[in-house]
Amino acid sequence: MRPAASVVATAFAGVPAKARIEAYHWQTLTQELDGFGCAVLPKLLSPVECRAIAGLYPEEEHFRSHVHMARHGFGKGEYRYFKYPLPGLLDGLRTALYPRLVDVAIEWNERMAIDERYPAEHASFLKRCRDAGQARPTPLLLQYVPGDFNCLHQDLYGDLFFPIQVAILLSEPGTDFTGGEFVLTEQRPRMQSRAEVVPLRQGDAVAFAVHNRPVKGAKGNYRVNLRHGVSRVRSGMRHTVGIIFHDAK
User: Fold this and answer.
1) What does pTM read for this prediction?
2) pLDDT of 68-89, one tens digit each?
3) Is residue 10 part of a domain?
4) Is residue 35 within a helix (H) or strand (E), and if so which, with residue range?
5) How confident is the model at residue 172 (pLDDT cuts 50, 70, 90)?
6) How many domains does the chain fold into?
7) Domain extent at residue 61
8) Are strands 238-243 and 164-169 parallel, antiparallel or unpaired?
9) C-alpha span between 31 and 25 (Å, rounded)
10) CATH code for the domain of 134
11) What is the longest distance spanned by two Cα atoms in the chain?
């Protein structure tokens, strides 16, 4: 899924995060997110910005922890969680994306009869996380080499979570790596699971459901359970940055 008419078609090098986010056609993106559980924001980052963020990976001073997936049964590969303060562009994107996604999140919860609602601004939501004992930052930088993959999973991190998150591909498929497709699966009640392989290019972002989303059926809305992952990298090196809006315990 790669919408062409719904968003701007040029990279935003040097443009403030809020202006980038406002340039997208959010009515179309919201419809795609609601209909498929994911929506692509093409060229959110420029190639130069992608390389700069990926280049942070070996610089330990930017991160609070380093995870090797195989040690925990998460797959094969590794990632690092950023520490506060986040790099400026990532912090700006996290702040600017949240208000564009919060109405979808609230509507989903209403349709699924979930009581949780969310404040309009991200800073207020982070305060709610801190009050719930969740104060560790969750944005992360992932690195894969040949043979690496990420098992299907959900990034929840605590009782309080925001139901949508964003991943940005920092490497160029076919040039920097092969394989390594972003995969989203949807487990539907009394039905076989549905898989969505989301084609991304360098700098593209995908917004997607973290846990559940509502689907309208013959007898009203029902919940589907979603998981996401990355298929096996065949060659090269793949970097992705993940923007998760809730913090962790």
Assistant:
1) 0.93
2) 999 999 999 999 999 999 999 9
3) no
4) helix 26-36
5) very high
6) 1
7) 17-243
8) antiparallel
9) 10
10) 2.60.120.620
11) 53
